[in-house]
Amino acid sequence: MSTQHPLDILFLTNFSDSCFRAVPAIAQMADALKVRLSILHAYDPAHTTQSAAQAHVDSFFPEADSYATCRRFAIRRPLLDAVRRHLDSWPVSLIVAPASGSLRLPRLGERSLRSRLLSEYGLPVWTMGRRTQAAKLGQRVENVACWVDFRSGATSHLPFAIDYAHKVNAKLHLLRGLPDVEESAVLLGNHGAVEPRRATRELLQLCSKSPIAPEVHIASGEGRRELNGMLRKCNADVVFLHGEEPWLTRWFGLGAGLGDSAFCPAVYVKRETDLPSWNLETGHAQARWEKPNVTEQAIVATRQRWVAELGLQ
């Protein structure tokens, strides 16, 4: 029998606008689930000292210090080596890597980095694009979406979506896009695989042992336009996607991925992962996060000061 455990979150921050924007989403996870949070910044020793970088990490997301577990680290670059050093000493079940802001900061959400995080460490990666709505980052998660692409054969992300939706008491929405039926397929009588009723049955079969009953949404088409349409239709607060991507788009930066243009955050899971589903423990952090009583201008000014002091531009 499996044992429930907290959600061990590794939050990678470079103090970009997106990192600040991601704070309410992580705080919301801590309200719904038992989490153990680690905040990590990989600094450049050519531009700052370890003590200065650590001071900035200590002042980032200060409300997290009231959580049952919150650990903060400033580790020398490169970032992937810093992540490896952390993984060697502490369990991690979710890596939070927000997209970069409008300035040319180290791009935590850049396509190549996210791909390497997924491929090298095999851990789910939470991220968001520049179009993610602020309202989706701080409110209670009520609708969890999971995009299933049968052509890729990747369903490793589905158990994570099921467990997450179940533990936060949210609705689970299974999304599937169907390719256009080619004339040759119709003539050969082989179009059953793309027939909506059959597609629905296949999705439900995947969840035959699920503790919650999902809602199924089928659309004609398989691109990001269809995904975003279904996400809006079910009012998704987060979408789970498999981490496989075409090699041609793997190295071309943010915007190439299916979920990068989504209006809600996305959790990517490696196609072939040896990890079980999270088996999360319900509960909440010791203290509820509240939005600081500061202006947006003050937040931007603080980030700009950190950028200048750390030499990240």
Describe this structure as you would to a colleague.
This protein has 2 domains: 1-108 and 283-313, Rossmann fold, CATH 3.40.50; 131-273, Rossmann fold. The protein is of the alpha/beta class. Helix 4 (111-121) links the parallel strand 4 (94-96) and strand 5 (125-127). It has helices spanning 17-32, 50-59, 79-87, 111-121, 135-138, 158-167, 183-188, 196-206, 224-233, 296-310; strands at 7-12, 35-43, 70-76, 94-96, 125-127, 143-147, 171-178, 215-220, 238-242, 266-269. Mean pLDDT is 78; it is low at 101-106, 183-192, 247-256 and 286-294. Strands 3-2-1-4-5-10-9-6-7-8 form a 10-stranded mixed beta sheet, with helices on both faces.
Shape: globular
**What's the mean pLDDT score?**
78
CATH class descriptor of the largest domain:
Alpha Beta
Which sequence of strands runs across the widest sheet? 3-2-1-4-5-10-9-6-7-8
The main β sheet shows up as: 10 strands, mixed
The CATH homologous superfamily of the largest domain corresponds to HUPs
Radius of gyration: 20 Å
Helix content: 25-40%
Brief rundown of the structure:
This protein has helices spanning 17-32, 50-59, 79-87, 111-121, 135-138, 158-167, 183-188, 196-206, 224-233, 296-310; strands at residues 7-12, 35-43, 70-76, 94-96, 125-127, 143-147, 171-178, 215-220, 238-242, 266-269. With 313 residues, the protein is α/β, with parallel strands linked by helices.
